[in-house]
Amino acid sequence: MALGLTRRRFLGGAAAAGAASLLPSTAVALADSGGKKVVGNSAADGAATQTPTGAAVAKVQWKAKPFPMTEVRLLPGFWKDTMELNRSFLYSLPNERLAHNFRVTAGIPSDADPLGGWEAPDCELRGHYVGHYLSSCALMHASTGDQVIANKANDLVAMLSECQTKDGYLGAYPATFYDRLRSHQRVWAPFYTYHKIIAGLIDMYEHTGNQQALDMALSMADWADVYARSFTDDDWQRVLLVEHGGMNEASFNLYAITGKTKYRDLGYRFEHKKIFDPLASGEDKLDGNHANTNIPKVIGAARGYELTGDARYREISRNFYRIVTEHHSYCTGGTSNGEMWHAPDAIATQLGPAAEECCCSYNMMKLTRHLFGQQPDAKLFDYYERLLLNVRYGTQDRNGMLMYYVPLQPGMYKTFGTPFDAFWCCTGTGSEEYSKLTDSIYFHDDSSLYVNLFIPSTLDWKERGLKLRQTTKYPNDERITFTIESAPSSPVALKIRVPYWATKGVAASINGDQQEVAATPSTYLTLEHAWKAGDVVAVDIPLTLHIATTPDDKQVQAAMYGPLVLAARLGTEGLTTSMIYGGNGPRGYDDGYPMPIVDTRPHMRRGANGEPTIPAPAPADSVWFEQAEASPLYPLQFHTKGRGPIHTLVPLNQIMDERYSVYLRNIDTD
Q1: % of residues, the chain, pLDDT over 90
Q2: All structural domains of the chain with their residue ranges
Q3: In this structure, are strands 493-498 and 448-451 parallel, antiparallel, or unpaired?
Q4: Of 3.20.20.390, 3.40.1400.10, 2.60.40.1180, 1.10.150.130, which CATH number belongs to 448-540?
Q5: CA 653 to chain centroid
Q6: Of 106 and 38, which is predicted with more confidence?
């Protein structure tokens, strides 16, 4: 079948993809509901109002706190389009099909058609997406006030409750999988799936007020606690060699909700020493380890630090973040090749067709959000924005289908799942991510409002009476506008992130009056004003052309425009719809194309005596591309400069149905 797919326009209100992947808030215990479902404070606003460190047991409070998702709403734009595509996908999945494997496992008759892919009846990971689905519906309810999606998820919780055994076990596969785990026989990650289900139930409690979901999660944790205690310490560490997701994080979250120390201790029980011990010492031992297996464990360490004050867990999470972002990340911010980490700074040699597993970006964004809350720093959201715009946005097609990898081998292409036959891990994290796009745009402390992301949205800071509207076409345009719709009840400083690439300065005005403000890259521009309703703040951040050079080969470089990674268009030769849909990566892992060449060497000159002279090579960070005229398909378009061939560059997140190369080889670099 010949390729016949329609590409999407960027920032034009068409279907879009990508999103922020962030930690849901932790609610205080709701009033006893007698085991009945409780849905929020109102149909429009949901239930959760607390931040992740809001529990009474927390030892480390966040210095900057996110707003409840119910106080932030997206305005029309490509991010909202992305969320709506995801909402449609969530509605398209029947509860009976989602619950089928759970019912079969519990001996309850089911005549539903089983789902396929990783939710098929013969897949050992079956059930994992159902946990993601519960989280996604809960988060979508909090993000939009959609009561129908909350009711759908509440009904699914009730269906699953019928499948839970008296000892607390709940799964879409039999508990005998854990016998295989005990015997160290081959089995596909049963605790990974178990974590996803517990996490989904916790999100249902926190964001819809479903007490039954919390009771089920606690019973599941009790079962896991009994199981874990039946091992010697050494044998348990062997068990933890098998992927177990964020079981430590989920256990710590249950401790935060209940205050019961047995869940804190369970979180510690899931500490994987092979990974944590080197990180505690600041050592980079990631080479050869599966990336997404381990990032959730570190999120659990960050959560454990917040709740217990354990300084070792603080160092583990911060050392890990530094090591990954400084030595194991591509220009996009993404990490992993073939799902694995490789030698530190091995970037140019690790441009594979299975690079940048999307789950890794989802989890790195969650970790980044924790670290920012603990110690606010604009650099953290510089990294977050890289992932948001370059790995997450652009991984959802026009029908809401999601990706597994973001290939970086020259000549590769993006691939997407199908509606009922994928359900990869990245389908699950994508479903969550695009449900909670509202929860990291704004943060606050006692006296300031932090604007970390430039996304059209409204904020209703109920505690302070401040209502704010942000409008922008960023990153297609450099202007971000904030309108004060309701003045705060007490003074509030507006802190607007100045990105790392903003080297041409930033201009800010209030009601048309230019402000004299410091605007150093990777800091916050602070505006203090006696705000009143109707005030308009305009911020202009000139988008700059810059280069990202790989540490292991200075000739291998990527072009960037502001926060956007650009990619060279390499055509559609040989591509078919069947190649793009249904596989978790490019089919066959063919040889791809040669890396595109950039040649900006000046022509040879002659000296005063007539002899030829060879010009010095250009500096490694010289910009070898320029903005070109927009096309109907690509509003942002660039060309390489210098000797031919001339390559056309567009934002990576725009490219859908064609081959591309993110990195090019600049042969004029010494």
Answers
A1: 84
A2: 448-540, 545-666
A3: parallel
A4: 2.60.40.1180
A5: 14
A6: 106
Q: Which tens digit of pLDDT belongs to each residue from 566-622?
A: 999 999 998 999 999 988 888 655 566 899 999 987 655 556 676 666 666 666 668
- C-alpha span between 139 and 47 (Å, rounded): 11
3-state SS, residue 667: coil
481: left (phi over 0), alpha (psi -120 to 50) or beta: beta
Are the beta carbons of 2 and 579 closer than 8 angstroms?
A: no
Q: What is the pLDDT of residues 53-66, one digit of tens each?
A: 667 899 999 999 99
**Per-residue tokens: 666:** 């600049």
User: Cα dist. 390→20, 97, 203, 364, 410 in Å?
Assistant: 11, 33, 27, 14, 17
Tokens of 535: 């005030």
- Alpha carbons 89 and 156: distance in angstroms, whole number: 16
Residue with tokens 């959201």: 381
| Cα–Cα nearest to 358, from 14, 54, 21 | 21
User: How large is the angle between the packed helices 95-106 and 128-144, nearest 10 degrees?
Assistant: 140
Q: Is 132 exposed, middle or buried (0-12, 13-18, 19+ CB in 10 A)?
A: buried
Which residue in 303, 299, 25, 15 sits closest to 142, CA to CA? 25
Whole-number Å distance between alpha carbons of 138 and 152: 10
Q: If you search the block for the tokens 């009846």, which residue do you land on?
A: 121
Cβ count near 635 (within 10 Å): 17
C-alpha–C-alpha distance, residues 528 and 493, integer Å: 5
Q: Cα–Cα distance between 156 and 216 in angstroms, integer?
A: 13
Could you tell me the end-to-end alpha-carbon distance of the chain, in angstroms, rounded to an integer? 45
pLDDT, residue 604, reads 52
Q: How confident is the model at residue 14 (pLDDT cuts 50, 70, 90)?
A: very low
pLDDT tens for residues 389-399?
999 999 999 99
pTM comes to 0.91
Backbone angles phi, psi at 462, to 5 degrees: -60, -40
151-157 own/partner pairs: CB under 8 Å, 24+ apart:
151/39, 152/91, 152/95, 153/204, 153/208, 154/37, 154/39, 154/204, 154/208, 154/210, 155/95, 156/95, 156/98, 156/99, 156/130, 157/37, 157/201, 157/204, 157/210, 157/212, 157/213, 157/216
Q: In what order do the strands lie in the sheet with 513-514?
A: 72-74, 457-461, 466-472, 479-486, 536-540, 507-510, 513-514
At 527, which helix (H) or strand (E)?
A: strand 523-527
Nearest residue to 199 via CA among 139, 123, 122 = 139
Beta bridge pairs of residue 482: 470, 537
Which three-class secondary structure state does DSSP give residue 331? coil
Q: Where is average pLDDT lowest: 18-27, 39-48, 258-267?
A: 18-27
Per-residue pLDDT at 588: 52
Evaluate whether 353 touches 592 at the Cβ level (below 8 Å).
yes
Which residue, chain included where needed, has tokens 């010492």? Answer: 281
What is the DSSP code (8-state) at residue 290? B
Residue 621 is predicted with a pLDDT of 66
Residue 126 tokens read as 């079956």
Closest-CA residue to 437 (of 494, 392, 377, 370): 392
- The amino acid at residue 258 is T
